[in-house]
Write a structure and sequence with these properties.
Layout: H1 21-43, H2 53-62, H3 66-84, H4 95-105, H5 108-121, E1 126-133, E2 136-143, E3 154-160, H6 167-170, H7 174-185, H8 188-207
Antiparallel strand pairs: 1-2, 1-3
Length: 208
C-alpha cells in the first residue's frame, strides 16, 4: 500500500486573510507532501506498507523506528490540522463542546488564554492540542512530530506551531498566528465529531 497525500478540505485561498494561499502552497503542497513522500520511501519493502497510517505511527513509535515514525506522524498531524480549521469560523463552539469548555476551563476566554500560552511557550517546533482524557479535556503541547496518538488520550483539535506554518504570513509573531486560529479558524464541528466518536467507542466498550 502506498500512503497518499490527503486532499485539503477547502481551496488553498479559503483561509485568507488569516492564512494565505501562499502559505498553504508551501505548507500543504511542499511540507505535507514531502512527509508523505519520505514515509513511502522509508516504508518501501517493509511491513509498514500494509498498515494504516495510525498503525504505522504507533508501531514505529514502539520500535523507535524514527525514520518511519517522524514522517508518518507528521503526515497524520497535518491531515488533522487541515480538518481542525475551516473558512469563516467565528471561533465560538456550540453544543456539548461549548458546555465542556465552560465546565472545564471556566469559559471560552480562559480556554483561549490557556491554549495560547501553551502554543506560544512551546520551544522550537511542535504542536498544541486539545485532547480528551476519558471525560476530561486538556491542552497539551508536543515537540517535533509527536502527537497524542501514542498515548491513551484522544486528540480533538490541533495547531501546528512549526515556524513554516506561519512565517510567510506572520514572520516571527507566533502570537498573532495563534490569535487568528483561536478567533477565526477553529472548526468546532470537527471537535464535536471527535467527541461524538469517542463517546460512541466508550458506549461500545461498556456494552461488551
Amino acid at each position: 500500500m502506498t500512503f497518499k497525500l490527503t486532499e485539503l478540505p477547502y481551496d488553498r485561498d479559503a483561509l485568507e486573510p488569516h492564512i494565505s494561499a501562499r502559505t498553504l502552497d508551501y505548507h500543504y503542497g511542499k511540507h505535507h507532501n514531502d512527509y508523505v513522500d519520505k514515509l513511502n520511501e522509508n516504508a518501501a519493502g517493509t511491513r509498514y506498507e500494509e498498515m494504516s497510517l495510525e498503525d504505522a505511527i504507533r508501531t514505529s513509535f514502539r520500535k523507535n523506528d524514527k525514520s518511519v515514525y517522524n514522517n508518518a506522524s507528521q503526515a497524520w498531524n497535518h491531515t488533522f490540522l487541515w480538518e481542525s480549521m475551516k473558512p469563516g469560523g467565528d471561533g465560538r463552539p456550540a453544543g456539548t463542546v461549548s458546555d465542556m469548555i465552560n465546565e472545564q476551563f471556566g469559559g471560552l476566554d480562559t480556554f483561549r488564554k490557556q491554549f495560547k500560552e501553551s502554543a506560544v511557550a512551546q520551544f522550537g517546533s511542535g504542536w498544541t492540542w486539545l485532547i480528551a482524557d476519558e471525560d476530561t479535556l486538556a491542552i497539551v503541547s508536543t515537540s517535533n512530530a509527536d502527537s497524542p496518538l501514542t498515548t491513551d488520550t484522544t486528540p480533538l483539535l490541533t495547531l501546528d506551531v512549526w515556524e513554516h506554518a506561519y512565517y510567510l504570513d506572520y514572520q516571527n509573531s507566533r502570537e498573532k498566528y495563534v490569535d487568528a486560529f483561536l478567533e477565526h479558524l477553529i472548526n468546532w464541528d470537527f471537535v464535536q465529531a471527535n467527541l461524538d466518536a469517542l463517546d460512541a467507542r466508550s458506549q461500545l466498550r461498556a456494552s461488551r
